[in-house]
Specification:
alpha+beta, OB fold (Dihydrolipoamide Acetyltransferase, E2P), de novo design (two linked rop proteins), 2 domains, five-stranded mixed β-barrel, three-stranded antiparallel sheet, 8 helices, 8 strands, 23% strand, binds zinc ion
């Protein structure tokens, strides 16, 4: 019997049988994995908290064919404060969902794991607006996945640009005035939003904790990055609908 220790965060679960649960867990070493948690929904189960969304644990897993079976768990944090607030929970599940879409099975990524851990820690314990935490998450995610938007040079003519006001979601970057006049593609984008995007991409996560967004930058960036990622990941995160309903 081969038991492997693994750090992980629960991204999703599905209940089956009377008290079992199949967990989708993000690990730094092996990407997303499927873990069977037997009997975890029983009131007295020692795996009850370790099988909830957002739970961050040191798991002991038994490798069995293409899944893992949960045999032990030391809880690092369950991020209870996220589940306790409807807005934090909506953005939190959106982030879990987008992470699940972005992660590959058996393909580890420390940056992706760290970004998720950072984002849910901020959601649970900081005063930053959940939408702004999500904005930072989406910008950093695009970079990790190799879709870093091009913000210094025009996507058409490659000229260095400073005072642009157009962003092309399809082409993945800014469009200069001449090219915009010719191509007529690109969203109108404010200078403040562009500067914020550059700042987020060029700054370490730990130094973004006190970043302030104006309402204009906040909503423009949310809208832009949701569509930008959706196009590249080819499907919307399901939890997005929940956020839309919340906003309405
Ligand atoms: Zn151009």
């Amino acid at each position: 019997m081969k038991i492997v220790p693994m750090q992980g965060i629960v991204l999703r679960y599905s209940n089956f049988k009377e008290a079992d649960r199949m967990l989708t867990i993000l690990t730094p070493d092996r990407g997303k994995i499927q873990v069977l948690a037997r009997g975890c929904r029983k009131q007295k189960s020692r795996f009850l908290s370790a099988s909830e969304l957002f739970s961050y644990c040191d798991y002991m897993l038994f490798e069995y064919r293409d899944i893992y079976i949960l045999t032990g768990a030391d809880i690092n944090d369950v991020f209870f404060d996220i589940r306790n607030d409807v807005e934090r929970f909506a953005y939190g599940t959106y982030i879990l969902n987008l992470t699940e879409i972005s992660a590959n099975p058996e393909e580890g990524s420390y940056p992706l794991f760290y970004l998720l851990l950072y984002s849910i820690t901020m959601l649970a314990y900081s005063d930053m607006c959940p939408e702004d935490i999500n904005n930072i998450y989406q910008m950093k995610l695009s970079d990790i996945l190799g879709y870093r938007p091009k913000l210094e040079r025009c996507v058409y003519c490659d000229r260095t640009v400073s005072d642009v006001d157009r962003f092309s979601i399809y082409n993945g970057g800014v469009v200069c005035k001449d090219c915009y006049d010719r191509e007529k593609t690109g969203y109108n984008i404010h200078m403040g939003t562009l500067q914020t995007m550059r700042y987020i991409l060029n700054t370490d996560l730990n130094k973004l904790k006190n970043l302030k967004f104006t309402p204009q930058v906040r909503s423009e960036l949310s809208h832009l990055m949701e569509q930008y990622l959706a196009q590249r990941l080819e499907r919307y995160a399901k939890a997005k609908e929940f956020i839309e309903r919340l906003k309405a």
